What does this fold into?
Amino acid sequence: MQSEIIVTDSLTKFYGKIKGIEDISVEIPSGNVAFLGPNGAGKTTLIRTLLGIIHPTKGTARVLGYDIRKEINQVRDRIGYVPEFDTSFIPDMTAMKFVAFCARMNGLSVSESKQRASDSLYYVGLDEERYRKLGTFSLGMKQKVKLATALVHDPEIIICDEPTNGLDPTGRVQMLSLIRSLQKNEGKDIILSSHLLRDVEQIADYTLVFSKGEIRAQGNIKELTAEKRSSISIKVRSNQEKFLQRLNDKGIESWIDGIYIESQISHDVEKEIFKIANETNADIRYLGNRSRTLEDVFINLFSKEDLIE
Amino acid sequence: MKKAQSDAYVRKFSFRAFEGVRKGRVYRLWATSWQWWTHQWERSRAIKVLLGFIIFILVITNLFLLSFKDFMLYEPGTRIPLINPTTGEPMTTNNLLEQNLLELVRGLVTFQTSFSSQTPGGGEMGMSIGGLSIFILILIALVGSGLIADDVSNLTTEIYYSKLERHEYILGKFGAFFLFGNLVIVLPMVLEFFLLVAGLGEISLIQAFPVLIQTIIITEIIVLTFASIVLGFSALTSRRLYAGLAAFMFLFVLNMIIPSLAFSGQGEVGFQILFDVLTLLLLTSFIITGTTEVIYYPHGETSEISYIIDLANGSGIESWMVIGALAMYILLGFAIVVYQVYRRHAR
Ligand SMILES: Nc1ncnc2c1ncn2[C@@H]1O[C@H](COP(=O)(O)OP(=O)(O)OP(=O)(O)O)[C@@H](O)[C@H]1O
Ligand SMILES: [Mg+2]
It folds into this structure.
């Protein structure tokens, strides 16, 4: 069963005249959710609005049933937030102190916050470095500290904004497996904001695709990438033009798509294709449905211009 | 293979659900203030050294006072009490406590000019061991300048605002400065009161009590003013160095320049004095101790030249102007902080 953790109602945020997000009304299910979109699409703006860091120009939202306009502090205690900014926090403070401090800001007692800070840093793999000053941490370590600050008060939802930014391949794998384990083993709801398809594909079951401050598509990744094609893909080795020409002559609408020829599906089309291939001496190497990746979905949703950045 | 590695990396057994009850907003406010202040304390050795200086000066003052107590109370070589020039009554130990403690308190906000008053506790017996003001100014710049500026440069505001309300953030910052001020400015003076009471002996506590209250009120006003000014500067920039220098210059340089301008005229004291925060604080301290006639010696107390600032004669600088100007400064600093936190940080 999927229940909604966040429901927004025509949520809009303008930075002066610059649009951050406009008129977003979505229901975000629990589980592993991804915000996917190119730079400047409004992902961070939506997250910061949900946390009350910025106030919406219009509209409102409910997080776990709490209204962000009236009960923002209830919301804040239930969300763990990994910001996207590259911050050294308080450079001359130890990781332990800083994470414990974050816990106290969310209402944990002094002893509880120390205990949990230690646990959280252990969880993200920084147990040995926890008494080191944050200013000496590498980018990857800082990302983990951010995750520790997001975990320390035991929130129900963890929002990670570009958590793999600037990480090397190992760091990326570690970070993603940490996030996945939070969902799988601790039952946290995860929101991952990213412009990286491979991150989203690894983590999320459900995705919202952002573009220019609006949501272009949303749904289960499985459904989004499922076959819904009206054409069949053919790959031939020789006489490609002649083959294509003949297909169209015979009334099978066909076109070239990369190294494939795509043909409109109709009754008995496959039989016909083989017949034409025989006639034109085209050597068929592949015939069938290519499976769609999230990337196909993504690229279909955006014009070239969108993707240039 | 990769999977096994990453699973070993995640040590799931260390994660525990939180089962307690979250504490309320007041606790959080206290926790942030305390953390912000102790961090300033821990990060800087200079703060501890300066505090050491302050304590040293207080100790010297005590030693001086206790050693020469008799010289200040009696005619040389006799037990005949000296006459308090302002009251015409014999000097008492209470007079000694009052004038010396208040002088120390005033020393927090003055170094250049020499003021004295004509009410009980004034007189010529005050000794000048040098104000603490220079140390205090450096201290407040060190402690306060980074309180907001560092959050902006380190982007920690993003984390704070995801957990705290804006007004909680502001109160927390002022709270941090107040913890500092109360521990480093107010508390030493209160302790000094009790040390003097214990050391001087023959003190009527009931008579001395108002001095304690005055000391607390004056020092708290000093802390409030400094908090507003230094946090105002800290909110204007993302560099703690600029904020600290600006706050220091603003207090120090104005105090170097303005009094000499204000006192350059013949007899009349110029209104420029209202722009000098340290002098305003000094005059306020006189107002709080019930003095409205303050004598200013531009060239030191031994010189012939002196001005009288009458704060209650209906002309020139008046008490309400002093209090009003000081309040304006406090409000201005506070307004800058509020504006920056609600407007500029709200991006
Ligand atoms: N503080 C701000 N002031 C003015 N405009 C802003 C501010 N923050 C974001 N914007 C604008 O709002 C739009 C959405 O930005 P946002 O940061 O939400 O995008 P994003 O999807 O998170 O992008 P990225 O992948 O780069 O993090 C952009 O056009 C951006 O320029
Ligand atoms: Mg972003």
